Amino acid sequence: MPSLIATVRVKEEKIEEARSFFKELGAQVSRDEPGTLAYVIHQKKDEPQTFVVYEKYESDEAFKTHQKNLGKVAAQFGAILAGAPELVVLEEI
User: Fold this and answer.
1) Domain span at residue 84?
2) How far is it, in rounded angstroms, from Cα 29 to Cα 34?
3) Predicted structure pTM score
């Protein structure tokens, strides 16, 4: 099963917008992506402009579906970013 840990830094003036964006994104993933087993969004307490997302998928196909769906909100996502996300792709053993 593929998993992903994404560290996302947002523009300081966009923190509240990012919180709303991530809450809505999490709801969409839960509603529209049955192959997503976990999509848990965290915000660092000591660095509030940094969000960490843990994702777990039932298959590579489910992972690809999520990537495709994320492309639909790329412009909105890009507007809050303070740089490229750091991605760690994992395979559960």
Assistant:
1) 2-91
2) 8
3) 0.92
